[in-house]
Amino acid sequence: MKNKITTLAALMTLRELKGNSTLGKASRKLYAKDNNNFDNNRNSSYSPNPSLPNMPERIPNLNPNSPLIPMQNLNGENHYPFKLLPLPYLANSLEPYIDTTTMEIHHGKHVLEYVQNLNAALKDYPEYHSWSLEKLLYNVSKLPKDIQTPVINNGGGVFNHNLYFNILTKGGKSLKQGSPLSMAIDSKFGSLNNLKAELKAAGLAQFGSGWSWLVSNKNGDLSVMRTANQNTLIEKNLTPVLNIDVWEHAYYLLYQNLRKDYIDSFFKVLNWESAERNYAKYKEIDYSKL
Ligand SMILES: [Fe+2]
What is the pTM of this model? Predict the structure, then answer.
């Protein structure tokens, strides 16, 4: 399957791909053909729970023509068994900057697998079934040796993607001038453009798979950092403000090797209001106290 998509992508020029969602449609067709379960599930009914927290842009209703992927309801609980949290928008909402097929596979395949693998790792250890995802990640050295790496990789994968998907939105949302985050950015980086350049540089400097981050310490001081694989910055007890997924699975269908173009597009759909909400928690988030 991967080869089919890669071959398809190779046959189309980047200009063709960028100007419309042709690849999204074409690869979706191929994908559906090879993934009957995925396609069938997509057409199953879905009733969003209006009481879900922190989901300001709830998915209204399942549109049979939409590329919405199947999602489990969020039950508001943060412990084993972990759930795949729903996207806070339709999978095609970030077009043309992040294509529909990438979103479908990214969320409905990659992140689902992280959730399933995390649960599988914890299955035989009921003493940790009440621990939150953040507590597991901060205290990973206290876990049995044989599940430490699976928790780092899969628990980190779940945490990182939950943040990533929730700081994106259709059309993006601007940073409010004079907001605490805006002032902290100006103070540390001089300007928003300087910050974007640093985030981009961190994403490009990350060899192989990983993440570029904007994080805050307990004093509200911002830093740009990068992590490899699915490592988080929870172990450093830093509050994540936003992150950029620079794994190829986040961009390869549309951008191939042009990670820099994907990062430029990421900023077009970045929800700075979400980033402001995350930054506002820098004092209260203390993973060492979980
Ligand atoms: Fe990812």
Answer: 0.77
